[in-house]
Amino acid sequence: xxxxxxxxxxxxxxxxxxxxxxxxxxxxxxxxxxxxxxxxxxxxxxxxxxxx
Amino acid sequence: xxxxxxxxxxxxxxxxxxxxxxxxxxxxxxxxxxxxxxxxxxxxxxxxxxxxxxxxxxxxxxxxxxxxxxxxxxxxxxxxxxxxxxxxxxxxxxxxxxxxxxxxxxxxxxxxxxxxxxxxxxxxxxxxxxxxxxxxxxxxxxxxxxxxxxxxxxxxxxxxxxxxxxxxxxxxxxxx
Lengths: 52, 176
Description:
The structure holds two protein chains of two kinds.
Chain A: H1 2-6, H2 11-22, H3 25-47
Chain B: H1 6-32, H2 48-79, H3 89-114, H4 126-150, H5 161-175
Helix pairs in contact in B: 1-2, 1-3, 3-4
């Protein structure tokens, strides 16, 4: 079980973090960001709104 | 003075609701229940490396929800300083629910249905869970908007604001 204690800096953990940067980082960042951008645009429109 | 510019408060509440709704998803579904992770349908977390890979993307997701909360707080602070913005509990609470519902519906549509990067509860009944998540979002949007509308008669600015604005105007006139 010793790997559990040291894993945040173990080779497998470091490799996983490195993989995130090396493996489709831009497209995946876009996928994660898209819902927030859509909602941000909706909020921008709501900002000008008066309730009928 | 009638404060009728509800949009500023609605936008602030919606941003806050989106961020807080994202935290509910991330904390409850990703971490506590561990039903899914950000990329669990394209990189299933079956070993240490893929778990850590998903953990990083969960962290990035949480960073974006944190940005939404920060923007919402900033907007709320600005709204509270404007005399034309009504300081309405109903408008704010409805907007919070509206934002949470928007998060569930938009994130569910894009990430679950269109891109398929993860699903609410993968495995048997996966589609039913995803549709339920979308319906929950729609209900939250409908209820949130109706609560917002119920507050459209609230036309008072934040208490104390007019006094300060009036004092500032008197001070300006006195100097002129």
